[in-house]
C-alpha cells in the first residue's frame, strides 16, 4: 500500500490525497510537518533532503515534489484520463501544472501566510498587498483560460492540472479579502468542489 508522509493542512499533501481518490488508490498517511513529526531529522531527510512534505513511499520507491508524485501515480495507475498519453494533450497538462507551482503558488504564498496563517513574519502590509496584486493578476490569467475551454484547465476533460489548480482556487476563496468577480473561475470552482476526492480531502481546510 502507498504511504504518504505529510499533514493534511498542506496544500501539496492534499494534491496527492485527491489524486489517490481519483485513481481509487488505497493509502496510509502519516502526519509530518509543523506540529507533528519533525521533518528536520536525519530520518526524514534521508527520504527528502529538502525536509518538506509530501513524500510518497511506494514499496522501495521514494518520491518527493507534489506534482512529480501526481505524474508518477497517473503514469503508473491511470489509463490516460487524468494524464493523456498524446504529446500535445500531455504537454498542456504539464504546462498548467508547472504554472501552478511556479507562478500561481508563488503569487499567493505571502498573502495566505499573512491573512490565514497569521504569520508575524508575513505581516508587512505592502508585501501583503503586492502578493494580492500578483495573485489577482494570475487568477485573471486562469479566468481567460477557463473562458476559452468552457470546462477545465487543460481542456474539456478533468486532469491532473485541475487537482493542483483546483486547490489553489479553493485557497483563493478561503482567504479573507475582497475578491474580484471572475465568472469562469466561479463556475469552475462549483464544478471542482462537487468531485468526491475534493469533498473527501479538501473541504474544511484552506
Which class do the helix and strand fractions yield? alpha+beta
Helical residues, percent: 55-70%
Oligomer: single chain
Give the total of beta strands.
Answer: 4
CATH topology of the largest domain: Glutathione S-transferase Yfyf (Class Pi), Chain A, domain 2
Which radius of gyration do the C-alpha atoms yield? 17 Å
How would you describe the shape? globular
Strand order of the largest sheet: 2-1-3-4
Element-by-element helix/strand order: EHEHEEHHHHHH
Q: What average pLDDT do the residues reach?
A: 96
- What is the CATH-assigned architecture of the largest domain? Up-down Bundle
Span from first to last CA? 28 Å
Which segments are poorly predicted (pLDDT under 50) over 5 or more consecutive residues?
A: none
The biggest beta sheet is recorded as: 4 strands, mixed
How much β-strand is present in the residues?
5-15%
Count of DSSP helices?
A: 8
Taken together, the total number of domains comes to: 2
Please write the CATH class name of the largest domain: Mainly Alpha
What key phrases describe this protein's structure?
about 210 residues, alpha+beta, Glutaredoxin, Glutathione S-transferase Yfyf (Class Pi), Chain A, domain 2, 2 domains, four-stranded mixed beta sheet, 8 helices, 4 strands, globular, Thioredoxin-like_sf
Describe it:
This protein is α+β, with helices and mostly antiparallel strands. The protein has 2 domains: 2-77, Glutaredoxin (3-Layer(aba) Sandwich); 87-195, Glutathione S-transferase Yfyf (Class Pi), Chain A, domain 2. It contains 8 helices and 4 strands; from the N terminus they run E-H-E-H-E-E-H-H-H-H-H-H. It has helices at residues 11-23, 42-45, 66-77, 87-115, 125-149, 160-174, 183-192, 196-201, and strands spanning 2-5, 27-30, 55-58, 61-64. Strands 2-1-3-4 form a 4-stranded mixed beta sheet, covered by helices on one side. Strand 3 (55-58) and strand 4 (61-64) form a beta hairpin. Helix 1 runs parallel beside helix 3 and helix 5 (125-149) packs across helix 7 (183-192). The protein starts with a strand and ends in a 5-residue tail after the last helix. 36% of the residues are buried. The mean pLDDT is 96. Residues 1-81 form the GST N-terminal domain. This is Glutathione S-transferase. It holds the Pfam family GST_C. Residues 86-206 form the GST C-terminal domain. GO terms for molecular function: transferase activity.
Amino acid at each position: 500500500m502507498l504511504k504518504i508522509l505529510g499533514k493534511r493542512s498542506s496544500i501539496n499533501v492534499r494534491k496527492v490525497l485527491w489524486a489517490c481518490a481519483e485513481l481509487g488508490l488505497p493509502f496510509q498517511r502519516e502526519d509530518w510537518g509543523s506540529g507533528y513529526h519533525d521533518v528536520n531529522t536525519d530520518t526524514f531527510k534521508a527520504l527528502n533532503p529538502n525536509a518538506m512534505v509530501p513524500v510518497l513511499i511506494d514499496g522501495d520507491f521514494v518520491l518527493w515534489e507534489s506534482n512529480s508524485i501526481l505524474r508518477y501515480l497517473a503514469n503508473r495507475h491511470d489509463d490516460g484520463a487524468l494524464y493523456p498519453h498524446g504529446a500535445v494533450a500531455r504537454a498542456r497538462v504539464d504546462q498548467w501544472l508547472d504554472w501552478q507551482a511556479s507562478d500561481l503558488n508563488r503569487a499567493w504564498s505571502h498573502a495566505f501566510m499573512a491573512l490565514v496563517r497569521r504569520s508575524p513574519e508575513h505581516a508587512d502590509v505592502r508585501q501583503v498587498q503586492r502578493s494580492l496584486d500578483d495573485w489577482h493578476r494570475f487568477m485573471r490569467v486562469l479566468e481567460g483560460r477557463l473562458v476559452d475551454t468552457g470546462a477545465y484547465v487543460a481542456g474539456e476533460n478533468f486532469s491532473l492540472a485541475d487537482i493542483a489548480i483546483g486547490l489553489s482556487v479553493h485557497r483563493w476563496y478561503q482567504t479573507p479579502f475582497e475578491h474580484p468577480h471572475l465568472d469562469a473561475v466561479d463556475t469552475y470552482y462549483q464544478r471542482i468542489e462537487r468531485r468526491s476526492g475534493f469533498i473527501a480531502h479538501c473541504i474544511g481546510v484552506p
